[in-house]
Here is the input.
Amino acid sequence: MSEQDESAGGESTLTVVLAGAVNLAIAAMKLAAGIITGSGAMLSEAAHSVADTITEVLLLTALKRSERPADRMHPFGYGKERYFWSLLAAVSIFTSGAVFALYEGFTTVFGHPEEQTNPIVGYLVLAAAFCLEGISWLQAVRQVRRDSRAEGRSFFGYLKLIDDPAPKTVLFEDSAALVGLLLAFAGIGLHQLTGSSMWDGLASILIGVLLVCVAYLLGRTNRGLLIGRQAEPRLVRGVRDHLVAAPEIEALVDLQTMVMGTDHVLVCARMDFDDALGAADVERACVRLASELSEQFNDVREVFIEPVPRTDPTLRATVLERYGDLQRPIEDTQ
Here is the structure.
């Protein structure tokens, strides 16, 4: 593992640990405030923070288990464990946070009116929680911004293609937490002004809908990575150009890539070599090209090169069926 990878892994761990500590403290404050004030929105926010705390535990598990080295049973390593545990984190946000918030909201709106007590306690807790959540949110933004600059991408462009779910998950859940706090504040305030607990319940429902959206977005991201997503287009184009430029290569017949984990890309290339080359020349060229790709692209960890004739009808039909166009796998965006 390179120093850059170790630094990125340490930053992800810091982001997750900070978020977990913040969410645990906030969950306790919100629960106490919810019991004191009788606010459904505050109780929903407490469930939200509990879900976020569980999420951080799952993310820490993902970070640690995915760093295990390859072995006989898992020759490509355990990188995809990060996506599995991160997918469970998205499920946790839905089951522990969204479902409770929706239940609390509908119960408050359609149930018996609830009397509000000590709303000032709710305001103070929400203000303190906003400050603490802001600290965690700034750390997540700082990490994503720094990493995006290092790769020469825009903030949102990098966020779309990121292969480390930890900072993205923390950023999304902290953003949702800040919005949820504002919704809870509005619900308590309108309840106090109008005397109707319907506003408190409506705030809970909106918090639940917000968490459903966040859980869906994170689940979709991790699902794609678990299934096996192509490497980001810039890397694929770079690999293509390097292989095509090799003097031994007459044509690149097929190029497949897969994200196997954070900063871990598998490359499989089928190439038509110069017919004048002998078997030993082709073998040396394969070894050299694999070594060059790993040196030039830090994320490329495994390279498989297969010499094939470009005129083979079965192979050509397979490639055309998959892509429709021999250049399409290179130019596709995620």
